Amino acid sequence: MRQRMLIVLVVLSVLVSGCAGLGGSGDTGAREDIGQQADAGDGGGEPPAEQRLGSDDDAGDVVDSVGPAAAGGDGRVVVREGNVTLRVSNLTTARRAIEDNVTARGGYVADSRFQRRGSGNTTWRTGRLVVRVPAENFSTTREAVTDRGTVEHENVRTRDVTEQLVDVEARLANLERERDRLREFLDEANDTEDLVTIEQRLSTVQGEIERLEAQRRALLDRVTYSTLTVDLREPRPEAPEPAEPTLAGVFTDSVRDVVATGEWLIYTVVALTPWALAVGVPGGVAVLLLRRRLGPSLGLDRGGSGDRDESPSDGGSPDTEPSDATDDRQEPEE
Questions:
Q1: pTM listed for this prediction
Q2: How far, in Å, CA of 187 to CA of 201, rounded?
């Protein structure tokens, strides 16, 4: 019984010391200004930033871990970011040159987007390249980029993250020590309730460790690889002024219109010929058949023997003699 109570008390003391050591890391782990956290007293009982960082040994260890190339001139760990806006004559050529320069310096293109703009008959292109290069090659890469066009805007930002990185490292060290103690208590615990309590705390501590490790990786990546955003813009072409008409130009335009009209007529005839053959030939045959079938009854068959009188073959006159017609006329009285 006494051993059980001793274990519970040890666990409770570990929980209290762990909470004080974390100092609300779930909220303050992502903050950048560690000095403000210490002044505000967030976390209740967390020592000031000066005590956590020590003299300069902790900062020196961090600088050694990221390499001197990623540190500033005074031995601090810094993040470099820049924006450049360039006006280029040909966007495709400038883009390829920038990508080649970045690749040659050990960097890569993180993001790219381009679009074509237009107004009337004029078009031009704009785009953006987000490149990342090793921190030691940031300045040379920026100079190579600015040589590819006319600089319209340029901005370089340098941010000191030494205290933020040291704070993350210190929190990780404390959490890892607490995790090791909890594992020892877990191996010695025999009671089910104690096991549940220790496992819950161990799970919470492990989650905090993983979160801080991800934060440290992201921060170190921003330190070792600087980011440069390049906006590329082609100049907007000026609309051409309309040319004054000339006699030669008017004549040439008229000839083009005549040729175009002739071509259109030829295309129309060629296009209608199959329809004329497909519709006209069956229609003509149908008309001929109707004339032969209905012609005698309608008096349309003039080539048959029907009601037409036959003329004598010798070219003579009909049965009535011409003399009869002469006799019927009366002679005038003398």
A1: 0.51
A2: 14
